[in-house]
Amino acid sequence: MADDDGRYMRMALGLAARGLGTVWPNPAVGCVLVRDGVVVGRGWTQPGGRPHAEVRALAQAGAAARGATAYVTLEPCAHHGKTPPCAEALIAAGVVRVVTALTDPDSRVSGRGHAMLRAAGIPVTEGVEAEAAHRANLGFLLRVREGRPMVTLKLALTLDARIATASGESRWITGPEARRRVHLMRARHDAVLVGSGTARADDPDLTVRDLGIDRQPVRIVTDSRLGVSADSRLGRGARQSPVWMLHGPHAPAAAREAWSARGAELVPCATDPMGRLDVGAAVRALGARGLTRVFCEGGGGLGASLIAAGLVDELVVFSAGRLFGADGTPGLAGLGVTRIGPRDWALDGVESVGSDLMHRWRRLR
């Protein structure tokens, strides 16, 4: 039974991953219904956060759900929100056992879904593949518990950790396969974040291209004084795909009006004594707006600030077979490290992507 529980829960986690980047502020949940060793229904949270995974799986199973075991990556909801409780739907469908990976930390659920199922006489097994589910739902869990989204920092570097030549040239350090992978990563996050320096220097678009997706991530710029032109590519495309400008209290009124006229959302944030955005306040502001997964693409100053504040949860580094030397631009601004302490990051995987190397690291907690 335990082996089967793990196998079907891993299947449900694979389904849940299909919702990453499209379901915020909801969690990306997967559900598998199994009766007599046969999968009779599968579902995952749909774009916008509904229908929920359980509802989709039950609809696919129909009458075959009666007598089935439900494998759900997160505790079924127990409250009436925009949809009825999924725990009630499982009970009404005649499911005879429920297996979950995680308890939902949302105060409206937080054990109530499990209790509702047990009160109806349905056995519940908790904690199956809990570690994998925790990592898959880290963004949602952080938003509920800490009020902030998960942050992934992506760096594309030369072998000597440079992001530009001595003259400032930076396109392209990595090859087309790596750049395509970055587009896939954008698609699996709710938002793409850059600093004002990157926005000015590169005039990026930050959309997902050539993958056939309809729903674009939110494009976000940290810019305390709104110095990035509203006539930039981001500004011109703000009505087609959402753009949020995080700014400080002293951003000029004319700049605010220009960005608002373009259709961008202005997000006021606190600043430090130097007039720079407080990155902690900025990230919490994103969490307050429902974001669960943010993909930061630079620059070096923003990346260093996020790392120094302990706000980077995953680090993705693409290494290209190039050397720019000490006069090139470093990938990160100074971190003020003066001694070698315990390791900050654990290696999660290494992969060749075209002619480049991609390695993933997760922050040790």
Count of discrete alpha- or pi-helical segments spanning 4 or more residues: 12
Extract low-pLDDT stretches: none
N- to C-terminal distance: 32 Å
SS-based class: alpha/beta
Taken from the alpha-carbon principal axes, the silhouette is globular
Strand order of the largest sheet: 11-10-9-8-12-6-13-16-15
| Estimated helix fraction | 25-40%
Largest sheet: 9 strands, mixed
Strand fraction = 15-25%
Radius of gyration from the alpha-carbon trace, in angstroms: 22 Å
The total count of strands amounts to 16
- The string of secondary-structure elements, in order, is HEEHEHEHEHHEEHEHEHEHEHEHEEEE
| Mean pLDDT over the full residue set | 94
Q: Any overview of this molecule?
A:
The radius of gyration is 22 Å and the shape is globular. The model has no long low-confidence stretch (mean pLDDT 94). It has 12 helices and 16 strands. With 365 residues, it is an alpha/beta fold. Strands 11-10-9-8-12-6-13-16-15 form a 9-stranded mixed β-sheet. Helix 3 packs parallel to helix 4.
Question: Can you summarize this structure?
Answer:
The chain is built from twelve helices and 16 strands. With 365 residues, it is an alpha/beta fold.
Question: How does the SSE layout of this entry go?
Answer:
Blueprint: H1 2-16, E1 30-35, E2 38-44, H2 53-61, E3 69-72, H3 86-93, E4 97-100, H4 112-119, E5 124-125, H5 130-136, H6 138-146, E6 150-158, E7 162-164, H7 176-187, E8 191-195, H8 196-202, E9 218-222, H9 233-236, E10 243-247, H10 253-262, E11 265-268, H11 279-288, E12 293-296, H12 300-308, E13 314-320, E14 329-330, E15 345-353, E16 356-363
Parallel strand pairs: 3-4, 4-5, 6-12, 6-13, 8-9, 8-12, 9-10, 10-11
Antiparallel strand pairs: 1-2, 1-3, 7-14, 13-16, 15-16
Helix pairs in contact: 3-4
